[in-house]
Specification:
With 134 residues, this protein is mainly alpha-helical. Helix content is 75%, strand content 0%. It has helices spanning 4-13, 15-18, 25-28, 38-44, 49-75, 79-99, 105-117, 119-132. The chain starts with a helix and ends with a helix.
């Protein structure tokens, strides 16, 4: 099972590309100490199992993309190169979420924020991620 810490690491890892703001604002808000918006809190309890499973599948895709760009990002020699890599990775991540079945980018963003604030939701997502990878 992926631990809550692992999920937090995956979510924070999205900060690799979120640093430039290329992802929507909700995805870019990967700081777990920030105050959640009322919308996110209201939606946290509204996520059904189908939405959690769709999010988990999209999250796995996003993590694979992030991991594929991590090496080039680390190897970049200039800030300009890092920015270009960030932009490419962010675009690919957004496309992966947009193409994912049964979830919109807005729902993905809301779930991402809610999971950072709600350990129970994070546990549900962890279980769904584990089931996705089996």
């Amino acid at each position: 099972m992926i631990e809550t810490r692992k999920l937090t690491t995956i979510l924070a890892g999205c900060g690799l590309v979120a640093a430039l703001g290329a992802l929507p604002a909700a995805v870019a808000a990967n700081d777990v100490t920030s105050d959640p918006t009322p919308l996110v809190l209201a939606q946290a309890t509204a996520f059904d199992d189908e939405k959690i499973e769709a999010f988990a599948a999209a999250l796995v895709q996003v993590e694979e993309i992030r991991a594929s760009y991590s090496g080039p990002f680390q190897a970049a020699q200039t800030e300009e190169q890092r920015q270009q890599i960030n932009q490419e990775a962010a675009q690919e991540m957004m496309e992966a979420v947009e193409e994912a079945p049964n979830i919109t980018l807005e729902e993905y963003d809301a779930l991402l924020q809610a999971a950072q604030q709600d350990p129970e939701l994070a546990d549900r997502i962890n279980q769904a991620v584990e089931n996705t990878q089996i």
